[in-house]
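Hi R.,

As promised on Friday, here is the backbone we talked about, encoded as structure tokens. Could you run it through your design pipeline when you get a chance and send me back a sequence?
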């Protein structure tokens, strides 16, 4: 009975160990890491503008914008400076911060619908009774 309980305990803890091991993206010893300046030069070569630089899960993590202006989050192996993971931040997340306000076309770039509500473009006249 005691052996069964020990075996069940070990089996129950195995998934937790796998989940923790999954977070370790970069495993190079600290003595093999390239300098922060070298990582910043690699980011510059990719055309990135760096807003934040930190170490996460043993990797260099860079947050900023790519050459087209899109927000990025990139993880680099600190020993090789090779990209481990790259994420583009969606604009939809920003919409949540503004109360889901969407404006797909700036004002004045699309003609108003021909449904009688917008008339000839003159300001509306209000009449108070």
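Update: got your reply. Pasting your designed sequence below so it's all in one thread:
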């Amino acid at each position: 009975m005691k052996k069964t309980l020990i075996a069940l305990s070990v089996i129950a803890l195995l998934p937790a160990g796998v989940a923790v091991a999954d977070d370790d993206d970069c495993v190079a010893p600290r003595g093999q890491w390239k300098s922060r300046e070298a990582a910043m030069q690699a980011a510059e070569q990719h055309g990135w503008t760096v807003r934040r630089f930190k170490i996460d899960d043993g990797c260099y993590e860079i947050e900023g914008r790519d050459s087209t202006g899109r927000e990025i989050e990139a993880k680099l192996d600190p020993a090789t400076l090779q990209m481990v993971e790259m994420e583009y931040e969606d604009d939809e997340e920003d919409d949540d911060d503004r109360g889901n306000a969407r404006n797909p076309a700036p004002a004045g770039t699309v003609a108003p619908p021909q449904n009688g509500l917008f008339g000839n473009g003159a300001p509306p006249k209000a009449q108070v009774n």
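One thing I noticed while checking it: The radius of gyration is 27 Å.

Thanks again,
M.
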